[in-house]
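Case study 2.
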Amino acid sequence: MNTPMVEVKGLRKRYPIYGPLGKLFPPKTHMNAVSGLSLQIYEGETYGLVGESGCGKTTTGRSILGLTKPEEGEIWYQGKDLVRLSEKEFRPLRRDIQMVFQDPLSSLSPWQRIGTILEEPLIVQGEQDAEKRRDMVLSILEKVGLSPEHYFRFPHELSGGQVQRLGIARALIIKPKLIVCDEPVSALDVSIQAQILNMLTELQKEMGLTLLFISHDMGVVRYLSDRIGVMYLGSLVEEAPTEELFANPMHPYTKALFASIPDISKKGKSREMLKGELPVRTDEFHGCVFHTRCPSADECCCREEPVLREVSPGHRVACYKAMEQ
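Prediction:
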């Protein structure tokens, strides 16, 4: 396969957990939001990253963009390790890597008109011609399905779907190569979700984009992604091409995610659902990340974390039981 556009190696990010008196005393322990994660994203593909809320998906995306500083690991892009770059060294690369946020309205200035919001990245990147900036803004508004009259509106005057289109327009305005989409359709109606997803697919083909699509919705990820990585408790537990993963899920957590997808043909039939809550992965946590909720866990699973291994071309899984099959 070709050289990856982005390669993440051994990414690790921890957050302190303080006692009842807060930061007056040192933290009691740390929560491992991302723990030793490694993945590759290839040019022109859509890589879907799925898992429960709190599993580390957003932290991974923000680390790639330099919005969160990991404690360990490497993130390689164009021969440079983004983790080791200073803000000054990272700034030229921000043109290539952009993000679409889950709640775009909170990431937009309520005091600026849409035209000003979209022109600001162009000014930062050195475009001084005001007329050219305006033409570029009007062009991108058309691409995302907004009209020229939106140029003079404020973000709060838009509907939820229009605000998300604006968030996508802001990410695309400087013509990036990679876009990290952090659950961009999770708060939208189903019909609006379909419109946004279709638009992203068309823009990807037209502009040659590479997408990292973060979501907890397996249906959405299946529709959009070429490959899917399944995260649980800060670790990648399974990765495979989309159709291979849906045809042959191997990790118990992946199977549990598929079991949670509503199926009208099985209405009235009982389904085995994942029980228990997502635990906190502290420094004292040992063994397979899923052993506290896995029905097949044994002593070995509780003692040592399995390594992500390839079981078939492009299909990797971190599970002792799966490796025995």
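The first helix runs from residue 57 to 64.
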